[in-house]
């Protein structure tokens, strides 16, 4: 069934793009609403397993932006939020572009492309690791797994993270081969599933246990390809119209935090970006954010902190945003596939999804 759905999706997108049916639809049907696209790293190389996504090549990113500039109306997130706040219709056939985390390649590769096509975008920054040599914990994990010096990983979870035994259930031991790239990819995905279940402290304990076992082949690491933005780069992009929002301090799962700790994350990440940009930061995106778990109390905290909009989890709630969308639940989709697949997804969500669901 999964293969059949994928095949139908590919055929649909192929026809939409290469028969130029998208151009006909956009020209004939001016439908209000904004699709928000999510990207992360824009880089010719990757340390991330293909099954994870995260990275898109500069060539493909440029094809995406060129297509969007030709077919759609690219608008800033700030304009979209203002429309939602004032109950105004969103611009017809509009899209908005976001990039999460604040990788250095956003300046090196994405920014020149955005300038070339006069496209707006908003970058969500992890405030405490901007302008440092650190990486978000998940990207560091991917890097260490890809360049692991060990050929095998064996960990007793009950001993490594005793405080989280209730999370593991019967899955108490890790025993994974790391000889081939395929084995390392499979191990990375299995471990990521476990790590994302854990609160901050147990997760750090397990990561420490993993890193101690696998070591790191320093000769293979190309650290300069994966760094975070500097404040000078951020200020330069802001001068050319790129917007910035907050994405927490350290990319932790904030919905597992106490209210007091969550408040600190919302406020401190916002203040640090504002201090460096000398302007208000009004949008937020939760790392690993599960929209079904975000309570009205969290929305109230966001408003009290001075935010005017918040992004929803791309994996749970996707599609087009309409005039009735809650500005604190703005939906996003992530499409890293070739441009014809981007075209098909956009057309599906804008013109067909509601009818098919009925």
How would you characterize the overall build of this protein?
This protein is α/β, with parallel strands linked by helices. The protein folds into two domains: 263 residues, TIM Barrel (Alpha-Beta Barrel), CATH 3.20.20.370; 68 residues, no CATH class. Helix content is 46%, strand content 13%. The chain is built from 14 helices and twelve strands. Strands 1, 4, 5, 6, 9 and 12 form a six-stranded parallel beta sheet that branches. β10, α13 and β11 form a beta-alpha-beta unit. α3 packs parallel to α5 and α6 packs antiparallel against α9. The longest helix has 19 residues.
CATH homology superfamily name of the largest domain: Glycoside hydrolase/deacetylase
How many domain modules? 2
- Rg of Cα set: 21 Å
What's the CATH architecture name of the largest domain?
A: Alpha-Beta Barrel
Elements, N to C (H/E): HHEEEHEHEHEHEHHEHHHEHEHEEH
Range of helix content: 40-55%
How many helices? The count is 14
What is the strand tally?
A: 12
Mean pLDDT: 87
Structure classification: alpha/beta
The CATH topology of the largest domain turns out to be TIM Barrel
